[in-house]
Write a structure and sequence with these properties.
By secondary structure, the chain is an alpha/beta fold. The chain has a single domain, classed as SGNH hydrolase (Rossmann fold). The chain is 31% helix and 25% strand. The strands form two sheets. The chain has a five-stranded parallel beta sheet with strand order 2-1-3-4-5. Helix 2 crosses helix 3.
């Protein structure tokens, strides 16, 4: 399995715990700067993305996250939801829903700075990424939720512990 970890410091921390992952991330980077400086087409079995938490008020986070996600082709895409940071969380959840991606809430694992997990927290998040059930790419489809491209479907009956039924 080939894995990529894209984005900011949370992506760096999780990626360092996943030896099969190549890290394409930078501490402190905004989503807009990521699009300008680092974005390229990405293809992997599994992709972990953490972006948006470093964006300021009035940033075009939703548009930047959509551009990043549009550059990714993967069987499974997982977004890391930062603790707090309501605007970033909302934008991430919107894009994840649009593309049929999974999310992992980092909140239960944050340390004293209320953003970054400690080493044990990063290990736990990496285990969650590794254990994430695969989504299944079913082919090209019509314009869906503003996106033209592969339609991603989750296997039925698979949920995170405590996750409500859809």
């Amino acid at each position: 399995m080939f894995c990529l970890s894209l984005g900011d410091s949370l992506a760096v921390g999780v990626g360092q715990q996943l030896p099969q992952c190549r890290i394409e991330a930078e501490v402190g980077i905004t989503s807009a700067r990521y699009v300008i400086e680092r974005l390229s087409p990405y293809r992997a079995d599994k992709v972990v993305i953490s972006l948006g938490v470093n964006d300021g008020a009035g940033a075009h986070t939703l548009e930047s996250l959509a551009r990043v996600r549009s550059a990714v082709t993967a069987r499974t895409v997982i977004w890391l939801l930062p603790f707090g940071h309501g605007d970033a969380r909302a934008a991430i959840q919107t894009i994840a829903r649009r593309f049929g991606d999974r999310t992992i809430d980092t909140g239960p694992y944050v340390g004293g700075d209320k953003l970054h997990p400690n080493e044990a927290g990063y290990r736990t998040l990496a285990q969650m990424v590794s254990a994430s059930p695969a989504t299944v790419m079913v082919g090209l489809g019509p314009l869906v939720a503003g996106h033209r491209g592969p339609i991603m479907m989750r296997p039925t009956g698979l949920r995170w512990p405590g996750q409500a039924r859809p």
